[in-house]
Amino acid sequence: MKTFVANENDIQRDWFVVDATDKSTGRLAVAIADILRGRNKPTYTPHVDTGDFVVVVNAEKIKLTGNKEKGKIYQDFSGYPSGLKQLPASAIRAIHPERIITQAVEGMLPKNRLSRKTIKRLKVHVGPDHPHAAQKVKTLEFKG
To answer: Which residues contact 44 (CB under 8 A, 6 or more apart)?
Structure first.
């Protein structure tokens, strides 16, 4: 028997649309990270980028469980002295609601060059409309 190893020429990328309305942040991020890495395909190879594109709509309606709306702190450090910004999740939801999903998915990916390439295939949009309708997108449903 021979072991199959995917290469860049064999990859066919699909587009998936996920509605984030009333979905738990962590469970949604795990499902999105698996699709971005290609773990839902039989041709999955850990060191080759075999994943698909994911478009997330209604990012502002994501559900944060427990006391995370006020208690979860998002940090951004500029690299300069006193350059640390700390905002609660409620402020991030008001300013940039797509960052909640993007940072959750980034945390689920491995920290390497491949993941920095992979995260670029995640498109997060506020509201139900997105500009990727020409890509023959498939709607993805999952429990969570």
So the answer is: 6, 37, 38, 50
CA distance 72 to 42: 37
The CB density around residue 137, as the number of other CB atoms within 10 Å, is 16
- Which of 104, 7, 19 is CA-nearest to residue 54? 19
Per DSSP bridges, beta strands 53-57 and 122-124 are parallel
The pLDDT tens digits of the residues spanning 111-133 come to 999 999 999 999 999 999 999 88
Count structural domains, the chain.
1
**What is the domain extent for residue 57?**
14-64+96-129
36: burial class by Cβ within 10 Å (0-12, 13-18, 19+)? buried
Stated pTM of the model: 0.90
CA distance 35 to 32: 5
> In this structure, is residue 76 part of a structural domain?
no
Handedness of CA 54, 75, 23, 97 (dihedral sign): negative
The CATH number of residue 46's host domain is: 3.90.1180.10
> Kind and range of the H or E element at 12?
none
